[in-house]
Amino acid sequence: MKVNFKIQNNIIIVDLNGELDHHMAQLVKQQLNAFLLKKQAKKILFDFKNVTFMDSSGIGMILGRYKELQKINGKVGVVNVTSNIKRIFEMSGLFNIIEFFTDKSEAIEKL
Amino acid sequence: MKVNFKIQNNIIIVDLNGELDHHMAQLVKQQLNAFLLKKQAKKILFDFKNVTFMDSSGIGMILGRYKELQKINGKVGVVNVTSNIKRIFEMSGLFNIIEFFTDKSEAIEKL
Amino acid sequence: MDILNEMKLEFLSVSQNESFARVVVASFAAQLDPTLEELADIKTAVSEAVTNSIIHGYEDTIGTIRISSKLYKNKIEITIEDYGKGIADIEKARQPLWTSKPELDRSGMGFTIMESFMDSLEISSFPGKGTAIRMTKNFEDKSSKR
Amino acid sequence: MDILNEMKLEFLSVSQNESFARVVVASFAAQLDPTLEELADIKTAVSEAVTNSIIHGYEDTIGTIRISSKLYKNKIEITIEDYGKGIADIEKARQPLWTSKPELDRSGMGFTIMESFMDSLEISSFPGKGTAIRMTKNFEDKSSKR
Ligand SMILES: Nc1ncnc2c1ncn2[C@@H]1O[C@H](COP(=O)(O)OP(=O)(O)O)[C@@H](O)[C@H]1O
Ligand SMILES: Nc1ncnc2c1ncn2[C@@H]1O[C@H](COP(=O)(O)OP(=O)(O)O)[C@@H](O)[C@H]1O
Asked: Measured in angstroms, how far is the CA atom of residue C21 from the centroid of ligand 1?
């Protein structure tokens, strides 16, 4: 999995690529935390467009970022989630606490 | 692997698809022999365009058909062989006894 | 029921083997010609169980994980074992959102996902000895389709 | 040299497992980030050895094939074992174009291909006990490239 970060509209956009399992979730977390420290942004948008696999480690990683950002009144959003991965989001109740978008530009505007 | 047979210019054209290992070589051999019995053709052209893998079982299968057709004065040809598979053909000396073509219509004309 | 095929895999509890384990089981299961969704379900369940052995079973040590799988007509059986810490309270561990390691960003959804993506799930575990997860999944019967 | 990763696989000697074995070893080897050609070489060598165990080792019976593999920095070691017939004359078996089963369309090129696609090949075999093939391949060192 490759991860790319971009800042737009004060939002860190995390472009995930490949399979988001525990191995990759750890790498994403490390890189993201380092990036957060430098950039001081309060919002993160995870783009799932190119994610081909996710298990509960992905849920944990996103939930972890949500909890950290909550402390500083920040927000976490997710965009472009496809069917199989959607089921996992649904099962774990993440839809209730995190903002979901279907369109990236809408997400960047509204998050 | 999928195999398709076609007759053109009195040549049985064997369109190989996928990985030509021992498992698949056996299937190809069976189907080809049944087809040969019905059609009474004396020439076989193996099209390797869509073959993604071959090991020595592929060599054995082609050599086997060559030997059978030799008995009835027939011929075996091969077309569209790509680099990795080419090495295996070269190592086993098949280039010396079987006709190789780079172009399919040329093969159908000249075999 | 007759066993059509059988395999066993053994590997180290390092996180780069999570994707390796998924590929191995998925490519074995592929012999039954499952749908893409069935394959995705199996990959996810295997990933959960293997990750648990790495994180919870062996914690910061490196141990051996064993996977064995059997194929039947339209059915796969998968067993994933470690020889690590074990689970003291299996009832509690199965509950959605319960995790012993929230500090490691665990969501506590692993067993819930395995249960809902597979058709059966059995957990046997002995503290100090290790954990074995046995799961089965039934595939759609293609022979009845037109 | 330090072992970076290690796995063992066990499966039945049926021909549909030839492609399964290739996928498993290739996806394990992928952790060393080999070139496509290096991967193709490994797949071919594994395919030859596994096919030999199925055809020559177990002939018309079904037995167990074991593969084990270790990853080192820029190097893979692969061992493929069966507990079948064994090879009486290893020297002869290694010769190009020599086969004991020409009637089964064997070309006698298996060992020649393993030898030329891998960097080392050791055969140990005992008639009636079985055969073990140990192969290694060195990968191009990417760290020295710019
Ligand atoms: N292989 C294992 N060895 C030891 N403990 C385990 C194992 N698998 C699961 N557990 C325990 O069960 C709990 C619940 O597991 P799970 O539902 O997968 O959630 P999570 O992995 O997110 O914690 C874990 O937090 C852990 O305490
Ligand atoms: N695993 C094995 N068990 C028993 N005999 C074997 C085994 N592998 C190879 N052999 C013997 O060595 C010979 C040469 O093998 P190889 O070069 O792979 O050619 P081929 O498989 O085409 O016969 C075989 O014909 C067989 O007699």
From this structure: 18
Domain boundaries, chain C: 5-139
Of D7, D14, D16, the CB nearest to C9: D7
Q: Is D122 a catalytic residue?
A: no
Which residues sit with their C-beta closer than 6 Å to ligand 1? A 56; C 48, 52-53, 56-57, 82, 84-87, 93, 98-101, 106-111, 131
Phi and psi angles of residue B48, each rounded to the nearest 5 degrees, phi first: -95, 10
pTM over 0.90: yes
| Residues D5-139, CATH architecture | 2-Layer Sandwich (3.30)
* Ligand of minimum distance to the alpha carbon of C83: 1
Distance from CA of D67 to the nearest CA of C (A): 9
Query: How far apart are alpha carbons D141 and D33 in whole angstroms?
Result: 10
- The answer to whether residue D22 scores a pLDDT higher than 80 is yes
Cβ-defined contact of A88 to C19 (cutoff 8 Å): no
Looking at all shown ligands, the one closest to residue C125's CA atom is 1
Which residues from chain D sit within 8 angstroms of residue B56, using beta carbons? 48, 106-110, 113
Low-confidence ranges of chain C (pLDDT < 70): 143-146
Q: Contact D23/C24, CB-based, under 8 Å?
A: yes
**The pLDDT of residue D146:** 42
Rounded to 5 degrees, φ, ψ at D129 are: -110, -40
Tell me whether 0.85 is exceeded by the ipTM.
Answer: yes
Instruction: Work out the pLDDT band at B40, boundaries 50, 70, 90.
Output: confident
Q: Is the pLDDT of residue A36 over 90?
A: no
Cα C63 to Cα D3: distance, rounded to the nearest angstrom? 14
Domains of chain B and any CATH numbers: 2-110 (3.30.750.24)
Q: Which atom of ligand 1 is nearest to the CA of A57?
A: 22
pLDDT in tens, D105-140: 999 999 999 999 999 999 999 999 999 999 999 998
Contact C10 D9 (CB under 8 A): yes
pLDDT of residue B39: 82
> Residue A19 corresponds to which amino acid?
E
Confidence of residue D144 (pLDDT cuts 50, 70, 90): low
